Amino acid sequence: MPELRDDPLTGELVLLAPSRAARPHTTARPGPSATDAGPASCPFCPGHEAETPPEVARVGGGAPDGPGWRLRAFPNLYPIVGGPDAGPGATGAHEVVVLSPDHDRDVARLSEGAAGEVFELLRARSRALAEAGHAYVQVSVNHGRAAGASIAHPHAQVLALDFVPPAVSAAVARFATADTDLVDADQARAENLGAVVVAHGDTRAWCAAASSGPFEVRVASRAARARFAETRDGELHAVAATVRDVLGRLAEVLGQPAYNVVVYDAPTAGGEPYHWWVRVVPRLQVPAGFELGTGLQVETVDPPAAAAALRARGAG
After folding, report:
1. Where does 7-13+41-311 sit in CATH, by number?
2. Which of 59, 158, 199, 284 is within CB 3.0–4.6 Å of 95 for a Cys-Cys bond?
3. Helix ranges (DSSP H) in the chain
4. What's the CA gap between 138 and 61, in Å, rounded?
5. Three-state secondary structure along 101-144?
6. How many CB atoms lie within 10 A of CB 204?
7. Is 110 within 8 Å of 118 (Cβ atoms)?
8. For the chain, which residues make up each domain, given as ranges?
9. Is-contact 221 239, C-beta < 8 A?
10. Tell me: the pLDDT tens digits for 73-114?
């Protein structure tokens, strides 16, 4: 039976309609990943450093803009914001962080230590851009063409805006008017439904009661502060390990789907209450006319069932 659920954390209304998953499909299913020309022509692979802008940070050995690195960060050659010709409202910065020299090693295939290094560099770039005076910094990973990636080599995006986006202002306002920590409340609601996937210390991964799509997973540390850039090492590494674990389980259950990993963060200034968290969204469906016309999300997999399937599969 369909059920309307509200999501206090995101402000979304979701229609839970598991019967929709049983409908027949006669259209072709799009592939999850972009066409990959391979390492020989990949600008993010070792030996191709000259094909990217000069790096702003690296982890590992070697000379700047040369091989020997484990992680590299550099300005995006095709930025959403920033650059010398940016108009009013579109100033800022847009960086790429390459997650591994290995062309096929996404976060799920990293070691736990390497995943921690990735999150450390993302935190460092977020902190640097905040200290440069930008109003909001977003960290995300788009993996596969269906998730918005144009280059197959696993990488993250760090975008700094010179204004606070309306959705972020609305999220902060929801926290300010709530009588509880909305992230902790969302996790507790999922726990009551039996929808927690995995725990690493004080960090939990769960399928929210009002997930906006099949097998969406949320990750947060109970001890997290308002801003990703201010996270302590222990909490950061626990979140990294949990995200890696979740992506490994999703790969086993769903067969290497395209996915987005998005850090939901507070603005770089201000003292409003907030609790940063991570949203992992496998790209299994696209918004159709109903979603576009109404703004309502449709969830076709009951969150406890999704969590049970993920719990049953170990991560690599």
Report:
1. 3.30.428.10
2. 158
3. 112-131, 166-177, 182-193, 233-254, 289-294, 303-311
4. 27
5. CCCCCCHHHCCHHHHHHHHHHHHHHHHHHHHCCCCEEEEEEEEC
6. 23
7. yes
8. 7-13+41-311
9. yes
10. 999 999 999 988 889 989 999 999 999 999 999 999 999 999
Q: Give the list of residues 6+ apart from residue 106 with CB closer than 8 angstroms, or none.
A: 99, 143, 154, 247
pLDDT at position 235: 96
Mean pLDDT of 7-23: 80
Task: Report how far residue 92's alpha carbon sits from residue 132's, in angstroms, rounded to the nearest whole number.
Answer: 10
Written as six digits, the tokens of 231 are 């996270």
Answer yes or no: is pLDDT of 27 > 60: no
Between the alpha carbon of residue 130 and those of residues 78, 138, 212, the distances in Å are 21, 10, 30
Query: What is the rounded distance in angstroms from the CA atom of residue 93 to the CA atom of residue 91?
Result: 7
More confident residue, 297 or 50: 50
Quickly tell me which residue has 């790969």 as its tokens.
251
Return the bridge partners of 156, or none: 97, 141
Q: What is the pLDDT of residues 179-218, one digit of tens each?
A: 999 999 999 999 999 999 999 999 999 999 999 999 999 9
**DSSP 3-state of 160:** strand
Closest CA to 123 of 101, 139, 141, 107: 139
Contacts of residue 41, Cβ cutoff 8 Å, sequence gap at least 6: none
Q: How far is CA 160 from CA 77, 108, 190, 231, 286, in A?
A: 15, 26, 32, 18, 27
Tell the residue number behind the tokens 């990993």, with chain if given: 261
Whole-structure pTM value: 0.93
